[in-house]
Amino acid sequence: MRRFLDRLYYGAGVLAALCLVAIFVVMMAQSLGREAGILVRGADDITAWLCAASAFFALGHTFRHGELVRVGLWLDHLKGRWRWYAELFALGITAAFTAYMLWAAASFVYESWKFNEVAQNLIRIPIWIPQMSFVLGVLIFFIAVLDELVLVLRKQKPTYQVAEEERRAAGDFSETV
Fold first, then answer.
1. pTM for this structure?
2. SS3 51
């Protein structure tokens, strides 16, 4: 199971990176097309959808690597059992909010699908298709939060804490800048 989850988070990170590359390609095509007198239809729509997809697909991966803003400043001042309780509380609250966000996003996309909502701009496709990146990204993030919660319940260090400690041991203090 560990191997599957690690691959899931890594794959989501790769998808986020590919979305960023695709944004670059679309924007360059639009710029070059403008110089050549060629209109790249729907480039703004595609870029907007890719921006959202890159942000949501990156959530789980960045969370596991300690790159998301969290309550670490507060937790770092606690030791022993108090830190464990605070970590459980923080992850529990995060899991609850993420579960709600997942439910709300899935409901929103389901309604778009149910009512056959179509994108209103130049590219006329069912809007639920680009919106699915929102649901999938939040789902992966929710799984990552639950994964960390289980680790903490088992009295193990969370993966994001291990990643942060490894960066500090290597002399990388870029997250504090």
1. 0.88
2. helix
Q: What is the mean pLDDT of residues 155-174?
A: 79
Q: What is the pLDDT of residues 65-114, one digit of tens each?
A: 877 766 667 777 888 899 899 999 999 999 999 999 999 999 999 999 99
Between CA 131 and CA 54 the distance in angstroms is 12
- φ and ψ at residue 126, rounded to 5 degrees: -60, 125
**Positions of E strands within the chain:** none
For the chain, the structural domain boundaries read: 2-176
Backbone angle region of 39, left / alpha / beta, with phi > 0 → left and psi within -120 to 50 → alpha: beta
- Distance between CA atoms of residues 132 and 69, nearest Å: 24
> Which residues are paired to 118 by β-bridges?
126
User: Residue 134, SS3?
Assistant: helix
Structure tokens belonging to residue 131: 């919106």
DSSP 155: T
